[in-house]
């Protein structure tokens, strides 16, 4: 049953209202037939039964010499038509008409004396045949029955049912539109928050319960915004407080009498610390505040490849044409930079960047032929601060590069996955929606 039950609230309300209207119509029809129409049929049968009994008694007293004249006057016959029936059968075709004909004949039989028989002729003309006695001789007399226009009544009932069902649908749509509009806005806003965005406050409208949910969501947004501002101020302070002594240490080292190799070693350490600080700040800051704009992602990949080539790290390109679409250019550049830096730092060989289109998404793959990571680390290395078992011992880092890239992809409505390559190495796949 659940398999066929509608999922949307509009469809469920529509089905329930239509079922309610249909049930009400059938209940009303049943009450009308049982308590109004059936008594009318019984009353009509009583009236006709009394008339038939009176006619039978009158004709029974007719003298034998006047029998032929009376038989001719009432159009009596010795036998009823062969196609006439005693009790009509019930079927789907003309059920209403046949049912009440049966009720009428049954009631008539019960109210007539035992000797009087009845038969019904459906065509060519609807006639009720009654067996009476004329001068001691039985004859069948036809009583014409005027056909009532049941078909027009049935059509009217069907039209009424259709109109009431349409009214139920319109009512369900009006109710659902009033309820669904704020719920849809709430769902869209919650999705934006889940992707790291900051939607506009919801307009409190609709029923009291919906208004309460909207106001509560707005209060939650205010609280999150306040927390974000506090975190940004704290990160700015941490960045300033930590980079200031680093700068002083650089100056002190440059003015010291240490050898050039020692100065270069300390300089690399300072660069590592500065890069780690920047990754902390990038991850905490996110990219939700950056506006989207149309751009060519293949152009960004080409420019980054040229920059890495200047640093002695050569990436081969396999770029299929991609349409211009909306994305956050600075954030996407940070995403690609992190992935290419990781490939150059940990993979070193077989560096490659590929892009192509699949239906309504753009796919970018950054590949290498390095040592790769273990299967258990594939799903974990995109988590913040998690590093592969082998890379943690060989290289310094914060474990935030892939986490930042994954965060940016999710904020664009896409995703990021890491897979081992056949023959060794890793492939980091980024999926971004084109619409």
Helix/sheet category: alpha+beta
Query: What overall form do the CA principal axes indicate?
Result: rod-shaped
CATH architect. name of the domain at 286-433: 2-Layer Sandwich
Note the main sheet: 5 strands, mixed
- Fraction in helix: 55-70%
CATH superfamily of the domain at 286-433: Histidine kinase-like ATPase, C-terminal domain
Indicate the proportion of strand residues.
5-15%
Characterize the structure shown.
It is a multi-pass membrane protein. Residues 237-435 form the Histidine kinase domain. Keywords: ATP-binding, Cell inner membrane, Cell membrane, Kinase, Membrane, Nucleotide-binding, Phosphoprotein, Transferase, Transmembrane, Transmembrane helix, Two-component regulatory system. The chain is α+β, with helices and mostly antiparallel strands and 435 residues long. Among the domains are: 9-148, 2-Layer Sandwich (Beta-Lactamase), CATH 3.30.450; 286-433, Histidine kinase-like ATPase, C-terminal domain (Heat Shock Protein 90). Helices cover 57% and strands 13% of the residues. Strand 9 (415-420) and strand 10 form a beta hairpin. Helix 4 (150-194) packs parallel to helix 5 (208-255), helix 5 (208-255) packs antiparallel against helix 6 (260-285) and helix 7 (297-310) crosses helix 8 (329-347). The longest helix is centred in the N-terminal third of the chain and has 52 residues, at 9-60.
